[in-house]
Specification:
The complex is a heterodimer of chains A (187) and B (238). By secondary structure, chain A is mostly beta strands. Chain A is built from 3 helices and 12 strands; from the N terminus they run ααββββββββαββββ. Classes of the chains: A mainly beta (187), B mainly beta (238).
């Protein structure tokens, strides 16, 4: 008989003891890497108040659209000191920041091109399981228009998944609830 | 160009608690109200971060040896295996844990419980599973602690666990409980998992055979992450 899956529970308010990795979490690629930018924003609740005890995690392809992972059928590729993984806990204002590079596009199942995106998990006190979302980029309009995952999202909500260009990178807020509720995925 | 042949996606997580669980009050303003949108598992889902020894740093699997003296409390061994839902062990995968000390107090600025901190206990541990998916921690049994959810609310004794598995859908943060805790029936977080048998999967088993005479009580807890299988989406499109 197959074992049954262990259920999820909340991270609670004290996850920082273990899961706060500081700069090792915030930097997906080292400072000084070509093309490194700052992605920042706020995580907000249903009344628009900041969530001060949340954590965001990101997972992404490298600049060439490759993954350093044995299950990538094109072969695992490790690119410079790039980890592909980012993590930041929010401060008292619900603010987070991650330093990363733009992931490349890649051909996925059925030869469909996926636009540049980060896979995102959101954890917090009050969330009994993580929320899964994606972050796309507002300067990739053509590939966003052809992206198979964005295509599954009603047009009027797609904007909640698209980060806005700033002077030093991109800004992206996540609303876990409310009129501007971010699109979350069942993966 | 030939289409890529990708491994199948990851199936199942139906025993997770509903995000809308109002008995746990902090869920009320934080859970999404619109339905989640199902997506197929492509390259960015069948992959995920893989951590090695470099992530362990100075922290290891013995929480009683991180300071000059030994922490107070009931010494315990927590061990088990990390498996996928197909029963396959997941080797070399990072497990991170955090917990209150024996008095029920976290080493965290937000914890206002008037119970003593222990100068010999930080309450965090890290380890990698071995080639057969096995892990082991040595620690002290965490105390129960009060919280503000409702009048006279207390959390059952628990250890927080964070796991990555080998792919994005396998990511799991959960809590391990101890058998026979009298606080189970009053705890909205434990009871947010609706199915009784699924709740039981969060409870470790006391193991006399691994208990070390005159030294430490042993608890066994296997953690099961999602396994390969067709997602409902893949079934739907054939
Ligand atoms: Fe806790």
């Amino acid at each position: 008989m197959s074992p049954e899956i262990t259920p999820s529970q909340t991270v609670g308010p004290y996850f920082h003891i273990c899961l706060e990795w500081g700069d090792a979490g915030k930097y997906v690629a080292p400072a000084g890497t070509d093309g490194l930018f700052r992605l920042h924003g706020h995580i907000l609740d249903g009344t628009g108040d900041p969530i001060p005890d949340a954590m965001i995690e990101t997972w992404q392809a490298d600049a060439d659209g490759r993954f350093d992972h044995p299950d990538d059928p094109r072969g695992a590729v490790s690119w410079q000191d790039f980890t592909g993984f980012g993590r930041c806990s929010t401060d008292e204002d619900g603010f987070y920041e991650i330093f990363t590079i733009k992931p490349g596009t890649f051909l996925d199942r059925d030869g469909v091109m996926e636009a540049a995106h980060l896979n995102v998990s959101v954890f917090s006190r009050g969330l009994l399981a993580r929320l899964v979302t994606r972050i796309y980029f507002d300067d990739e309009q053509d590939s966003n228009a052809a992206d198979p995952v964005l295509a599954r999202v009603p047009e009027e909500r797609r904007g909640t998944l698209i980060a806005v260009s700033t002077e030093d990178g991109y800004r992206h807020d996540i609303h876990t609830q409310g009129p501007s509720e971010t699109v979350f995925f069942d993966v | 160009m030939a289409d890529l042949v990708l491994p199948s996606g990851y199936a199942g997580h139906s025993d997770d608690p509903p995000l809308d669980s109002p008995d746990y009050r902090s869920t009320v303003l934080r859970h999404p109200k619109r339905p989640l949108i199902a997506i197929p598992h492509g390259l960015s889902e069948i992959t995920g971060p893989v951590f090695g020894e470099d992530r362990l740093g100075d922290v290891d699997n013995d929480l009683t040896k991180q300071h000059s003296g030994e922490p107070l409390g009931e010494r315990i061994i927590v061990y088990g295996r990390v498996l996928d839902a197909g029963g396959k062990p997941i080797p070399d995968t990072l497990i991170e844990i955090w917990q209150a000390n024996a008095a029920g107090r976290y080493l965290h600025k937000g914890d206002q419980h008037p119970a003593p901190l222990d100068p010999n206990f930080s309450g965090l541990g890290r380890t990698l599973t071995d080639s057969e998916g096995r892990y082991e921690f040595i620690s002290v049994k965490p105390g129960a602690y009060p919280w503000g959810n409702h009048y006279n609310a207390w959390r059952p004794q628990h250890i927080h666990f964070s796991l990555y598995g080998r792919a994005f859908p396998q990511r799991l943060v959960t809590q391990m409980y101890f058998p026979g805790d009298p606080l189970f029936e009053f705890d909205p977080i434990y009871n947010s998992v609706r199915d009784e048998r699924a709740r039981a999967r969060m409870v470790a088993r006391f193991d006399l055979s691994r208990t070390v005479p005159n030294w430490a009580l042993a608890y066994e807890w296997d953690i099961v992450l999602r396994g390969h299988g067709m997602t409902p989406f893949e079934e739907e499109i054939g």
